[in-house]
Amino acid sequence: MSTINAVLPPSGRDLRLDLFRGIANWAIFLDHVPHNIVAWVTTRNYGFSDAADLFVFISGYTASFVYAKVMLERGFLIGTFKLLKRVWQLYVAHILLFIVYIAAIGYVAQRYNEPGIIHEFNVAGLIDNPIQTIFEGLILKFKPVNLDVLPLYIVLMAVFPLALWCMLRKPDLTLVASILLYFAARAFGWNLTAFPSGTWYFNPFTWQLLFMFGAWFALGGALDSRKLIQSRFLLIAGSAYLLFAMVMTLAGSFPQLASLFPEQVFNAFNPNDKTNLAPYRVIHFVIIAFFVTRFVPRDWKGLEWAGFKPAILCGQHSLEVFCVGVFLAFVAHFLLLLNSSLLMQFVVSFGGIGLLCALAYFKEWSSKLDKKPPRMAEDGVTPLRKVGPSILTRPPRDKSVSSS
Question: From the centroid of its chain, how far is CA 342?
Fold first, then answer.
C-alpha cells in the first residue's frame, strides 16, 4: 500500500470557505449584470483576479478534503463513485439551468420584441439549427453567455479522482505537474473547442491550476507554506503587488490613469487574460489566499457574527444560489434595458442579492425538514428511548406498583 503524505484539515465546516464562496456568488451575480454601477463593489475592478478565481479555488479546496476522507476510508473506487455522483448532480443542475435560461431569453426576445438579446447572449444558433445546438449544449460545447463556470467545474471534478489519488500520495509533485500542464497549455494553445466556433471561455487546461492549488492548500499546502505566509517579506512584497494590480486594473477603465504608464507596461496587463488565466492573475490570487490565511484564522470568532450569516448560508448552498444567480442576472439585465436609472440599478442589484439570500434561508429550512423527527410514543408526546440490556434483564415490577 502506498504511503499517504497529505495532511487532512480538521474535521467540521470551515466557515471561511462558506463565507467567501457566498460572497463570490454575490459578486458573480453583480458582475453578470452589465452597465450596473453596483458591480463596482466587486474585486474584479481592483485587481487581476476576481470571484471566478475564488470560486474555482474553493471548489478544489472543498472537493479535496471531502472526498479525500472517503477515498482514504473506503478506497479509491468508492471515492471515485462519490465524486462522479457529484459530477452528475452538477451536470443535471447545468442542463436544467441551460433549458430555463434559453427559454427565458427566447421568451423575452419574442414577447418584448428584443431580437438583439438572442445575439447578445449567444443563443442565435437555436433559431438556425436548434437540434444540433441543443445537442452541443448537452455535451457542454455550446454555452450561452454567463453559463461558462459550471461546465468548467464539471470537467475539473470529472478528472479529479485520479488527481486526488496522486495528491494524497505526492501532493507537491502533483501540484508541480499541474503547473507544468498550465504552462504547456498556454505555450501550445491547448483548449477545448466550443460551438458554433471558438474555444471555451474558461480554458480548463489552465484553470485547473487554481482548482489543484485549492486541493494542495487543503491537504497540507497551507501548513507547508506557513513560514512564507507569516513572513514580513510576503506582507511587504504582497501588499505592493496588490497595490500595483489595483492601479493597473483601474487604468484599464480610466484612460487618464492609463496615460501615466508606458504603453508596453499597460498592454501587458490590459486586457486581462481571463480565458487562459494569465500568470499575473494566479500570483494575485495566491497572495490574497495567503493573506486571508494569515489574518482570518479558521477559529476567528468574527465568523460567528450575525451579519455574515446570509453570505455563509449562500456559500453552504452554493450550487442552487449560483444557478439562480445566473438566471436573476439575465432578469436584471433585461430590467435595466427598460429602465437604466441609478435607482433601478440599486433595486435590481440588492433585490437580486436579497432573493439569493432568501433562497439560501429556504434551503436551510427545508433541509431541516428532511431530517427525521424524534420518534414519539403512542400518545404522540413522550419520546421513545432505547432500552438498554440492563433494563431488559431487570425483573418485572410488582403488579400493584405498575397499576397505581
Answer: 29
133, 195 contact by CB (below 8 A): yes
Name residue, grid cell 491537504.
219
Backbone angles phi, psi at 75, to 5 degrees: 100, 165
Closest Cα to residue 191, out of 273, 251, 90, 247?
Answer: 273
Q: Which of 272, 289, 198 is nearest to 238 (CA)?
A: 289
| Residue 199 β-bridge partners | 193
pLDDT in tens, 265-311: 999 999 999 999 999 999 999 999 999 999 999 999 999 999 999 99
Determine contact, residues 83/161, Cβ cutoff 8 Å. yes
Alpha-carbon distance values, 81 to 74, 170, 204 (Å): 11, 22, 22
Q: Are 298 and 14 in contact (CB under 8 A)?
A: yes
d(C-alpha 220, C-alpha 7), whole Å = 5
Q: Are 56 and 50 in contact (CB under 8 A)?
A: no
Burial of 213 (0-12, 13-18, 19+ CB in 10 A): buried
Question: Could you report the per-residue pLDDT of 183-201, keeping only the tens digit for each?
Answer: 999 999 999 999 999 999 9
Q: Measured between alpha carbons, how far is residue 396 from residues 161, 352, 389 in Å?
A: 57, 64, 14
Asked whether the beta carbons of 168 and 219 are under 8 A apart, the reply is yes
Using 70 as the pLDDT threshold, list the residues of the chain that sit under it. 1-2, 372-404
